[in-house]
Amino acid sequence: MGYKLAGFDVIGCNEIDPKMMEAYKTNHNPKFAFLEPIQTFKLRKDLPAELYNLDILDGSPPCSSFSMAGNREKDWSKEKKFREGQAQQVLDTLFFDFIDLAKELQPKIVVAENVKGLIQGEAKSYVRKIYKAFQEAGYQLRIAPYLLDASTMGVPQRRERVFFIALRNDLAGPFMEQIDMFQTAPKLDMEFNEDEIAAGEFLESGADRKPLSPSVQRLYNKRLPTEFCLGETAERLGKRSHFNEMVTDPTRPGFTLRTQRPIYDNGLLTDSEIAYLGSYPIDYNHGINQSQYLIGMSVPPVMVAQIATRILEQWLKPINET
């Protein structure tokens, strides 16, 4: 959706989750859709010619192994399921499978998204390997990836994500004068300063909300007005729990949407409120997926549209003109 908003024609997708693939096909009707692990997809030699030399190849390798909310180092190199119904796989190597696919398809530009935790702590060693893999695949990147926050990009949600944006080596010619000793690829201006959009603009007064579970309700009743994470309330009461239970502050952008539905007005956010905070259309067909899961696992479309527009204006148009 983000690329379409920026004027691109999205022609294909690769997905491992059949439920997500069905929703994608229902809403976007891609010309090419490959339901299989990227480990086998990257080895295909029967792909249509249209998938080679794309303007942009975009991917978000599953990133739970690097999330600051997960087990981090304890899960690295272990096989695990990303979601029910999927084959077990080593999640922290999927980024390199994606780069292998880029090496095969040779798009002009590669965009790879991940969680902020990828550039924190011991995970930085993976970043060095990612840079080396991109270089071996024939691509240039800036020294540092882009750390962007959706709330500065026209999305009513505070969501920080890391973006690697790589340019194929043979296309760097028009930008060579911009390259200096401090970067390995031409600079993209990715500074965004949109005014924040408060969640309260989309919250529905008097909505018929799903009730809180008994344990969450008890904590909610004991929270202080300044406690927007029920984990803080639990900690104040001598327990360590419920750190994923977030109470929406109507005066600020929403918290990062996760698979756990946020709280507001003594209940849970509605589907339409979740859609607004995720910059999704409220009539999006989620299929058999829960809207909270599908939107919570997505990069907000408006965030992607902002990035895609900058890439189009600053890289692709000069390349095509040359």
Q: How many DSSP helices?
A: 10
Query: What is the CATH architecture term of the largest domain?
Result: 3-Layer(aba) Sandwich
How many distinct beta strands?
A: 11
Number of domains: 2
Given helix and strand content, the structural type is: alpha+beta
Largest sheet: 5 strands, mixed
Unreliable residue stretches: 67-73
* Element order: H for helix, E for strand: HEHEHEEEHEHEEEHHEEHHH
The helicity comes to 25-40%
Spell out the blueprint of helices and strands:
Layout: H1 2-5, E1 12-15, H2 18-28, E2 32-35, H3 38-41, E3 56-59, E4 79-80, E5 89-90, H4 94-105, E6 109-115, H5 124-137, E7 139-140, E8 146-149, E9 160-168, H6 214-222, H7 230-236, E10 263-264, E11 267-268, H8 271-277, H9 291-296, H10 301-321
Parallel strand pairs: 1-2, 3-6
Antiparallel strand pairs: 4-5, 6-9, 7-9, 8-9, 10-11
Helix pairs in contact: 4-5
Outline:
The chain has 322 residues and is an alpha+beta fold. 30% of the residues lie in helices and 13% in strands. The protein contains ten helices and eleven strands.
Structure, explained:
The protein is of the alpha+beta class and 322 residues long. It has two domains: 2-194 and 299-321, Rossmann fold; 199-296, no CATH class. The chain has ten helices and eleven strands. The strands form four sheets. Strands 3, 6, 7, 8 and 9 form a five-stranded mixed β-sheet that branches. A two-stranded parallel ribbon has the order 1-2. It has a two-stranded antiparallel ribbon with strand order 4-5. Helix 4 packs parallel to helix 5. The longest helix has 21 residues, at 301-321. The relative contact order is 0.14. Residues 67-73 have low confidence and may be disordered.
